[in-house]
Design a protein that fits this description.
The chain has one domain: Nuclear Transport Factor 2, Chain: A (Roll). Helix content is about 25%, strand content about 40%. It contains 3 helices and 7 strands. The protein has a 7-stranded mixed sheet, with helices on one face. The protein is globular, with a radius of gyration of 17 Å. The termini are far apart.
Length: about 140
């Protein structure tokens, strides 16, 4: 018994970044925390410029999302990837409220997300109760 001829293509950085971005939103939307953890590097840095908060590490980032209040939902409106970078324009809904958000991802050569920068439409003070997970700058 022989295997049919197969052609193998190296996955380029842009394709890896695009795949990581799609998977990132999918795992967040489904609240698939183990799946999300598998996308993140140990060196992960998550930043929210509007609140000047930064989270270091996968465990703190997962906990931040697990504890995030409300019944929120994400849908990709647009995704652009180039090399090890991806930009997402998201439709974010919490109950009847709708907002746009932009997310920048930096993806390592091994396909893991190293950095996430979450941009919201306007600055706001962060909700109370997550000071133990973030540093303000």
């Amino acid at each position: 018994m022989s295997l049919p001829d197969a052609t193998f293509h190296a996955v380029d950085r842009t394709s890896m970044a695009r795949h990581a971005a799609h998977s990132y939103v999918d795992h967040l939307e489904r609240r698939d925390w183990p799946g999300l953890a598998g996308l993140l590097s140990d060196r992960l840095v998550y930043e929210m410029p509007q609140t000047r908060e930064r989270i270091h590490g996968t465990d703190a980032f997962l906990r931040f999302n697990i504890e995030y209040p409300g019944d929120w939902h994400l849908r990709i409106r647009r995704l652009v990837a180039d090399g090890g970078f991806a930009a997402l324009w998201l439709d974010v809904r919490a109950g009847v409220e709708r907002q746009d958000a932009c997310v920048w991802l930096e993806v390592s050569a091994d396909g893991l997300i190293d950095k996430i920068i979450d941009y919201w439409p306007e600055p706001y003070d962060p909700p109370l109760g997550r000071e133990h997970l973030v540093e303000r700058w």
